[in-house]
Design a protein that fits this description.
The protein has 253 residues and is α/β, with parallel strands linked by helices. The protein is 49% helix and 15% strand. The protein contains eight helices and seven strands, in the order βαβαβαβαβαβαααβ. Strands 3-2-1-4-5-6-7 form a seven-stranded parallel beta sheet, sandwiched between helices. α6 crosses α7. The longest helix has 29 residues. It is globular.
């Protein structure tokens, strides 16, 4: 599949799914703008990709910083054809210990930031009548999990946003889709493992096995598996796929 000459913006591109997606998009011919909070990690991603990558550090929950990052990416590589909303995080606590501030923080990162990024790039896509927006949601956007109610709520919101946006742009050359990974071997899962070991006394291997057990294949998903689906959704072969929320979870759902 070729995406030669396309410009993609990837948030949360410093590690995990974001880094894997940036690498695969570059392999398919894209120029990629890497957005995230950690300059060092973004630079590592860019070094792995080469001249097709440009680093634009920003906290995506800061609308001004996000807008500036997207603008410098546009200055470097031209109009934005593809947006991958990957930046995200999960806080863990029982619902009754989840404060209003905790909820707002999860909504800001996992729902409001993707919406703001889409507002910044969608007008140009509509003018050119070609664009791809892929939101990295989660199986938590399709089902409930205990002790992460704020994260579940935010990811459900992101799936709903995806479906609504997709209908608005369906006849205008743009598609909007979501991918919904199950437990994936990323830093987010590493933090979950640390929380489990700290609270339960289980070993790290036992904690990882407990998370992997939700996948009928009995394993964690890899970032590259998610990236492969994202890149496919960006290609012309997926031009008829719009408004879907596709699980990558080994049959969990």
């Amino acid at each position: 599949m070729s995406l030669q000459g396309r410009h993609a913006v990837i948030t949360g591109a410093g590690s995990g799914i974001g880094r894997a997606t940036a690498e695969r998009l570059a392999e398919a011919g894209c120029q990629v703008t890497l957005v995230g909070r950690h300059l060092g990690r973004l630079t590592e991603s860019a070094d792995r990709i080469g001249e097709a990558a440009f680093v634009a550090p920003a906290d995506v929950t800061d609308p001004d910083a996000l807008a500036a990052a997207i603008e410098v990416g546009r200055d470097r590589f031209g109009p934005i054809d593809i947006l991958i909303n990957n930046a995200g995080a999960a806080s863990s606590a029982p619902f009754l210990k989840t404060s209003a501030d905790d909820l707002r923080a999860m909504l800001a990162l996992n729902l409001e930031a993707p919406a703001e990024a889409a507002r910044l790039v969608l007008p140009g896509m509509l003018t050119r009548r070609w664009g791809r927006i892929v939101n990295v949601a989660s199986t938590a956007g399709l089902k409930g999990y205990p002790y992460v109610s704020a994260y579940v709520a935010a990811k459900h919101g992101l799936v709903g946003l995806t479906r609504a946006m997709a209908l608005e742009v369906a006849a205008k050359g743009v598609t909007v889709n979501a991918v919904c990974p199950g437990f994936t071997d990323t830093e987010l899962v590493a933090r979950s493992v640390a929380a489990i070991t700290g609270k339960t006394g289980r070993t790290e291997d036992e904690a990882r096995a407990a998370l992997a057990a939700s996948n009928p294949q009995g394993r964690l998903i890899t970032p590259d598996e998610v990236a492969a689906l994202i890149v496919w959704l960006c290609g012309d072969g997926a031009s008829g796929v719009n408004g879907v929320a596709m699980p990558v979870a080994g049959g969990e759902l």
